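Dear support,

I submitted the protein below through the web form. The confirmation email said the job was done, but the results page showed an empty box. After a refresh the structure appeared. I'm attaching both so you can tell me whether what I see now is the final result or a partial one.
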Amino acid sequence: VPPKISAPVAPFTARGEGRIDAKNYQVRGHAVMEIAGVGQVFDRHEYQLVDENENRAVLVYGLKPDNKEWFLFTPLQPLEPMTPLQAAALRMGDTVNVDGYIAPVNELFKSTIRQMESYDTTNFNGGTAFYSFSAQTNSIYLLVRWNESGINFYRGKTLPANEVNAAFIPAVKN
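What the results page shows now:
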């Protein structure tokens, strides 16, 4: 088992509002997620966001260990979603079509909530685990997570650090 890489200090707290990707978001929660993949185990920060229309999003700090990039993931609702069983059968390099986004699977991993601050009762509790895969084509990232409760699909993209910092970190706003 490889040594686990801990997440850095949380970039900001699980409260506040800010504007990113041309939308106003409110932070509704923060989780430290343990990511266990082939040859690596690491923690990363994920923030649960909602916009002014109550649309959800997930803001991730560092998709990989020691990665300092921000990624914004918004939910997809595929017309013909794969089932958790179909997702579990995928292997590295398999091509997926999620709501018209076609990309090769580039990572298979398990995500486990290790710590959670939430101001929204619909979020999961600490210890909740998901099986996951990611796929990428050009600048679009796909993230699919499933467990016994169901399957979720997300489309993501990289955000500039200065945009996220200006939106959510009070010291940077001044």
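Response: this is the final, complete result; the empty box was a page-load delay. The mean pLDDT is 89.
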